[in-house]
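Annex B. Sample input.
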Amino acid sequence: MLVRDGGHTFGQIAARSGALAVWLQRAGLVRGDRVAIVADNCVELVVALWAVLRAGCVFVLVNPTTKADKVSYILDDCSVRGVVAQSRLARTVLPALEEAPSVTTAVWVGDLPRRVGQRSDEDDGHDSDSRLRDIEHVRYDAALATPGEPDDPGLIDADLAGLIYTSGSTGHPKSVMLTHRNLVHNTWSISTYLGLREDDVVACMLPLSFDYGLFQIFMAARVGCTVVLEKSFAYPRDTLQRLAETRATVLPGVPTIFATLLQLTPFDDVDVSSVRMLTNTAAALPPAHVDRLRGAFPGATVFCMYGLTECTRVSWLDPARLDDKMGSVGKAMPNTETYIVDDHGERVGPGEEGELVVRGASVMRGYWGKPEATAACLRDGEIEGEKVLHTGDRFWADDEGFLYFVGRRDDVFKCKGEKISPKEIEHILYELEDVGEAAVIGVPDEIDGTAVKVVVAPRPGATLTEDHIRRHCRTRLESYMVPRHVEVRETLPKTDSGKIRKAALVPERV
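Annex B, continued. Sample output.
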């Protein structure tokens, strides 16, 4: 069941997606063609997603907040042929379509935008909208009226299913290629270790353009549970009310979402007793937040996970080991292997830091149109002919094999000759209840070369001072890790997936 402005069974969604798939095929789209879906979290997006797959095409999910120039880049980068978009986003989508020579058809959820129309014999080729007139436009509801069943496109599990563009802090995003095998495997593996049940109600406020949000839909379809689809997490208090109203049992989130919810504690009269499971990925939860979340949701177990778009998910920590393995992101998920290597590609022992490597059916095919970037992270494994994913993330493992995240390879820096892990300092900062958001970066320094800078945002109504933060750091950290620079902001910049965007905090070098 999918809940958004009324209930929709997966059977109803299957029927609608079949009709839309027929329309896409009759519009000339064939196996392997890319179809971009530009919409917020809505039933129509889910229908379009399955329609694209059933037509044998490849979905390209675009966050509805994406600006026109980036949408244009995406459409051109992977030569999109079809677009499904909400009419309310026409001001963003239409300029992108004008610059997208590969697009031949567009399906609009809502009324057709005023500027579009069918090809005219009188078009002299100089009309500013002539490119738009070369595209076949149709209303979503009209496309759903198409009779018949879609033709079998003859797909196998090695075929490409979707492209997910990484949010990227700088430059153009890379497009992760996921196959049908990737989707099926990851859906099975994640829903299995989470123990997702048919009677679960999943509160999904994560954008479906983010793979973590997308897989809430896939897992619900596999298990048969209910997804309550929310547009966003823009209004945290409303989110709490929806948890209570829908008797949600599962709340997937990222650290910034959980940090915001903790700012509202205690929840007063909002009943969240139905929530039995909190799941986190994208970045590690600070241990201080884990403890506070268990207090705020006393009936819930907390699943700390680690993943990246290039393989969706990597590891999970059994909640039964949460206390004795605090700070760990657990072990590899089912049918996946992980290990840590040094700078020469050799495996390291327990307690030694290195780069995490992932092997298994979850690993992407590569980056669309970027063979050099693909070769940099998909390298020869220990088994002849196998490619494994070098994540670029620094980890260490204990003697039981539990993984501990240190930081992105590019995040780690040296200060006074010592290696600095921003994540370690951030966890200490989150021990202060008045800290809502925190980020640690390295900045140029005349004496040390690189100095530690802390950027924090207080929780609503709280006051933070530089002296308060420094005093706390001095009592909890080695001297070389104590920040030289402290900045307090109202809020920190974030990516579409909710991660703090550290590149926007780094001062430009002159």
